[in-house]
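SAMPLE LOG
Freezer: B-3
Tube label: C17
Construct: single chain, 430 aa
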Amino acid sequence: MIKTIISPFQRFVKTESLAGILLFGATILALIWANSDYAWYYQRLWNFPIGFSIGDFEIKKALILWINDGLMAIFFFLIGLELKRELLAGELNSPKKAIFPFIAALGGIVVPIGLYILLNDEVATAHAWGIPMATDIAFALAVLMLLGSRVPLSLKVFLTAFAIIDDLAAVLVIALFYSHGIHWSLLLYAILLVLALGIYFHKVKYHFSIGIIVSIIVWLLFLKSGIHPTIAGVLLALTIPIKKRINIKDYTEKLDFVKAGIITNSGLSHKHLLSKEEMNCIDFLGDATQEVRSPLQYLENKLHGLAAYFILPVFAFANAGVKISSDIPVDFDLLWHIAVALFLGKLAGIAGFTWAGIRLKLIDLPAQLNFKHIIGIGAIAGIGFTMSMFIANLAFAGDDLRINSAKIGIIIGSFVAGLTGYVILRLVKF
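STRUCTURE (predicted):
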């Protein structure tokens, strides 16, 4: 029974851990290419314009923007699915379960932001406070995987839970503070479509094809409205039902019915072909299988591999290629402010808020964990790679100097955070 419950989470950890390794590999390749004699081709590839037009309607964007606005919208859709599942049936579905990761996440958000604001003394970079606030769950779990059995499963669950809260906060920050020139009428149309889709899915029937068509329209409306289209991914995820249309008992009864039908009609078919009756039985089974699945769980499982093994590595490959050279101008103040806020901010925020929560008797540590584990995981949470780079692109859009400086700071801060967290957890005895 316990194995049945834990196995899905262990598969999730394995997937995210491998994603972290692929992210690391993509980052190294991007840095090598961007600093080689062929760097010009790297820039040319990601700035290559791709688009289409239908009458007066035209969309033409650089390849890197299709990745950051398009592929990442799918990744944010997955974040929305994970958030909804956690709120309804996971580690955040009750105040008692949610309080521990919530307090840790709050510290991991507030302290890095506050530290960055405290360090920064330049108006031009003041709005970049959102960069050090998010944890990259894939990279963080990859570091934990390197520690093997030395890391309790409860620590991985804790990291996953507060990283999801982190992601939600990052989504809200992007929507509220990093969207500009909003066209309210287009945004209203998009929100009305999302609401209509949610009502249809929950009151009538979940239909994947309808969801795809409406999602594309909503994405386009968000793109043109001035709100970053990745926000559309999160909102659309909230429309996906978690409830199955039939229960397992009804499904097994239908299995028995199909089995009986196939046995009864088995002599009527050709050895290579099915009879009409057998085809009807199998079609009936297919419909029943669709109804017994949770649409949310099914989509989440299908998208995990796509996000882990394709979307995130491609994002890293396209965005991590910053040129590092003595003759390339760098905003060193911005670089170090981000690196320090990521590493020290996350570590102090998560460890400090958790300690305060324990002292105030708001939370209790799980039996397998001690406070050294929290310090180690607080350090690892400073790996803010994917979401931090994403926010950096939004904060400094069009400012290549500061985008590159921010990305270098993110890479340095994330590397130091991952290494420090690994060493701390390696030394913890339990």
